[in-house]
Amino acid sequence: YDVSIANAMAENNLIIDATSSGSIDGIKFGSTASLGAYANVLISSINLGDSVDIATIADAADKNASLTLDGGAGFDRLNGNSADNDLTLTGLDKGTLDKVSFSNIENIYLQGGNDTVTIESGGRLSGLLDGGAGSNTLVVDDGGSITIGGDGTITVGSGGTGGGFQNFQNVRINDNGTGKQTNSLTLNSNSNNVSITGPNSGTADGTAFTNISDIDLAAGNDNAILASTGSLSGTLK
């Protein structure tokens, strides 16, 4: 059967190793628990309560473990695993990581694997998303502005409202079939290197981008290379 649990004040450590199964603060539950009061008790929904909590999808779960997770109050963190995780942000601190549905999770660390993150309209984190190791791709569904800070942190949206993202080697903006690309990329005060290798595509300091029409090199002694196949429908500043 399925139950929900809530732990109000402690700093909880949740490990998800199969569907509705794992351990919380060392107490095992679900199909992977052979002993204890919660052996074979499937817990489909977990509220971590009021503290700074950590939830981790174990490598054993791969991309197949399903569970509904509410981080509750506090500045919480969700860790991916070594699989090629698929993360979708659907609202503020809300979305899905493979088959785990989450809410009130402020920080996400994807660890290893070639991960793909899709930011739907209104999706963002109030904390940081770290792509970790691997070749990771950031996909923004509704376009807009992207800023790459001097420390490599990517901000999606104006005024810092889009959350911070780091360790992403590829950035793609979807135009949702409109054919109109008015997406901007702003760099930083470092000495940046930009290569425009295709229509609205190329690399900025090693980060590949697609469907970016306007680029602002900002301050610094920058170098921009325009290949014979490269072009921008907007402006290079």
Question: What is the overall number of helices?
Answer: 0
Structural class by SSE content:
mainly beta
Biggest β-sheet: strands ordered side by side in the sheet: 1-5-7-11-10-9-13-15-19-23-22-21-25
Stretches where pLDDT falls below 50 for ≥5 residues? 1-5
Lay out the secondary structure.
Layout: E1 2-6, E2 13-18, E3 21-24, E4 27-29, E5 42-47, E6 54-57, E7 67-70, E8 77-79, E9 86-91, E10 94-97, E11 100-103, E12 107-109, E13 116-119, E14 128-130, E15 137-140, E16 145-148, E17 154-156, E18 164-166, E19 170-173, E20 184-186, E21 193-198, E22 201-204, E23 207-210, E24 214-216, E25 223-226
Parallel strand pairs: 1-5, 2-6, 5-7, 6-8, 7-11, 8-12, 9-13, 12-14, 13-15, 14-18, 15-19, 16-20, 19-23, 20-24, 21-25
Antiparallel strand pairs: 2-3, 3-4, 9-10, 10-11, 16-17, 17-18, 21-22, 22-23
Write up what this structure looks like.
With 237 residues, the chain is mainly β. A 13-stranded mixed β-sheet has the order 1-5-7-11-10-9-13-15-19-23-22-21-25, with no helix packed on it. The N terminus is likely disordered.
Concise account of the structure shown:
The protein is mainly β. The protein is 0% helix and 43% strand.
List keywords for this structure.
single chain; 237 residues; mainly beta; 13-stranded mixed sheet; 43% strand; elongated
